[in-house]
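for ur thesis appendix - Transporter. copy paste whatever u need, i formatted it the way the template wanted (i think)
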Amino acid sequence: MFLLAMRSIRQRPGRFLATLLSAFLGAAIIMTFNAMHDTAGQPGVDAVSSETLSTAAGVVGGYGTVLVFFAIASTLTVNVRQRAAEMELLRCSGATPGQIKRMVVGEAVAVALTGAALAIGPAMLGGRALLEVFQDSGQVARSVEFDFGPVAFLTGFDITLLAAAGAAFLAVRRAGGRSRRRSRARTVPAYAALVAGAAAVTSTFAFSAKDAALMAPPAYGAILLSVGCALKAPQLLAAVLDRLPLGGASGWLAVRNLRERAGQLAGILMSLILFTSVATATLTMQAVESDAVAASGAVKSVDAKNLETLNFTVVGVIVVFVCVMLVNSLYAATSYRVREFGQQRLAGATPGQVLGVVGAEGLVLTVVGVFFGTLAALAGIVPFTVVRTDAVVPEQAFGVWLAVVAVCAAVTMGTGLATARRALRTPAVRAVATAA
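the 3d part is after this line
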C-alpha cells in the first residue's frame, strides 16, 4: 500500500497541492515560534527575554498545532471525498478497508514530510524576523542571538506528520459512511466546549478592572464557544437552511446543494466561525485595553506589551491559516463540480445562472459562519468590556467586526466565484463526458 501511495502521488500530484501547502505553512509557523524555545534556552539569556520568548512559543505554538490539524483535515477530507469512485474500484479489486486506510495515510504522511522539509528555510528566516520584532519593541535584549535548534525542528516535523496521519485516518473513516457514530463523537466535545466556554466568560466577573489576567477568561471562553459551534457546523447549517427565505431558481438550487453537501462543507463553515470569533474578540478586547491604558496615562509594562504582541500575532497566524483553509477547501470543492456545472448548462442554465447559484451558496456560508462566530465573540467581549470600562458593547467592536466580515466575504465569495468561472470555461459536453 505504501508503494501504491507513492505511485498515486507521482501520477496525480495536483490533487495533493492543497495538503502540501497546508503542511508547509503549518510546519513553517510551528518551527518559527518554537525556535523561540531554542533561543530562550541559550546560556546567558536574561530572565525577562527568556520569559517573553517562551511565552510566545508556547501560546502561538499551541494555536498553531490546532490550526495545522484543522487545515490539513479540511483539505484531506475534500480530497478523500473526491476519490470515492477510485476507492470503490480498489475495494472491488480486492483491497481491504485497512489497506485503503494505510494507502491514504501513507500519501498524507509523505506529502506532510515534504511540506515540513520545505518549511525549514522559511522558518529560520521567520524566526530571525520575529526575534528582531521583540528586540525592536524592547521585550528582548539586543544581545540575544537567534538559535534554530532541536525543539523547532522536532516539533515542526512531529506535529505536522501526526496531524497529517490523524486527519487522513479520520477522513477515510468519514468516507466510510459512519455518519451516526461521527455525529455522536462530535456532540460530546461540542457541548463540553460550549459549557467550558460559558464558564470561562462568566468567570470574567470575578476579576477586577486592572487585573493583569482579565483578558484571559473571556478570550479563551470565546475560543471555546466558537469551537463548540464549529463542531456543530453541519447541524447549524441545516437549521439555518430550513428557515432561509431564498427565492428564484438560483436560491432554490443553492439551498438544495448546501443541504445535500452540509457534511462536506463543515470544514469551510468551521473555518469561518473560528476566524470570526477569535479575530473579532481578540482585536476588540486588545483595542479596549490599549485605549483604557492610554486614557489613564499609564505606561504599558513588559507583560502588557507581550500580551499585545501575542494577540496580534495569534490573529495574524489565524488569518493566514483560515485563508489557506478556505481557499484550498473551496477551490477543491468547486473545481470538483465541473460535471455538475456542465449538466446544469445542458439542461438550459446560463453561465450567469450557474455563477448565481455558487454566489448564493457562498453568501449563505458566509452569513452563517459570521453569525455564529459573532455570537461567540460577543460572549467574550461583553463581560470584558463591562468589567474593564463599565460599558457593554465597546465602540471599537463595530470597526473590527466590519474588517473581519470583509475578509470572510472576500475569501469565500471570491474563491468560489473565481473557481466556478474557471470551471465554466470547459464546454458543457466535454465537462460531462470527461468527468463521467
